[in-house]
Amino acid sequence: xxxxxxxxxxxxxxxxxxxxxxxxxxxxxxxxxxxxxFVMVKVASGLEPFLRRPISINxxxxxxxxxxxxxxxxxxxxxxxxxxxxxxxxxxxxxxxxGFTWKGTDKTAVLVGGGCGIAPLxxxxxxxxxxDKDVYVLLGAQTKDRLICEREFNKVGAKVQVATDxxxxxxxxxxxELLERLLAQVKxxxxxxxxxxxxxxxxxxxxxKNSLPCQVSLEERMGCGIGACIGCVCKTQDHHGKIDYKKxxxxxxxxxxxxxxxxx
Length: 264
Ligand code: FES
Known about the structure:
The chain is α/β, with parallel strands linked by helices. It has 3 domains: 3-96, Translation factors (Elongation Factor Tu (Ef-tu), domain 3), CATH 2.40.30.10; 100-216, Nucleotide-binding domain of ferredoxin-NADP reductase (FNR) module (Rossmann fold, 3-Layer(aba) Sandwich); 218-264, Dihydroorotate dehydrogenase B (pyrk subunit), domain 3. Helices cover 17% and strands 36% of the residues. The chain has helices at residues 76-81, 121-130, 150-155, 175-185, 197-209; strands spanning 3-16, 19-25, 38-42, 52-61, 66-72, 89-96, 108-114, 134-141, 159-164, 171-172, 190-194, 214-217, 233-237, 243-247, 254-256. It has a 7-stranded mixed β-sheet with strand order 10-9-8-7-11-12-15, with helices on both faces. α3 links the parallel β8 and β9 (159-164). α4 runs parallel beside α5. The protein is globular. The mean pLDDT is 94. The chain binds FE2/S2 (inorganic) cluster (FES). FE2/S2 (inorganic) cluster binds at residues 222-225, 227-232, 247, 249.
């Protein structure tokens, strides 16, 4: 159930250039969260900027009733978020949207993440590992110092591979090349993807080519986060190819890749 709460900030720290990790005590909200969902965070008191910011949930500690959010500083709102201090009250609404799903019969999953899109895959890897899945994680970043969460994936026991654009860490090239190599070697039941649109499109094409189910989390600009402003629509199609438009905030952010129409 969606809650609007006042959480207590535990920390707000720089984890990579332009990337911050915000840990918040959220009480019973922690029990409701599914991997891939997001929250709306009120960035600052007063009217400016008056909108809340959608931030994906990086991980949850149900016992401690905390959640971790990772955000990238890309505009005025997220810049203001860097001023959030420990012990500060924070207005949070969530959990929102449809998260990732998995089947009991799946044995092996591959998670492909790029940039800030890596963040929500941590919660997914934790859940899949807790349910005895074999989990491969492929991470893409521009450079080694802009790579986030590698340690968290290693900690949960996922098999992690990294690709960087400049070759400063792991494979020198695109994470989608790592995916093609892996699929040539390992039998995979389910793909998951979150990251920049060009990467998501390529992962979707690779999934189609290999006849693999793939869930993609779309990063879309959002206003309200609750289906009211129509500011986040994406083009979709049903099994018969009939075109429709869905709201990323309430119908997604996670979609079956076959459902999404990526216009070139
Ligand atoms: Fe308002 Fe999706 S963000 S409808």
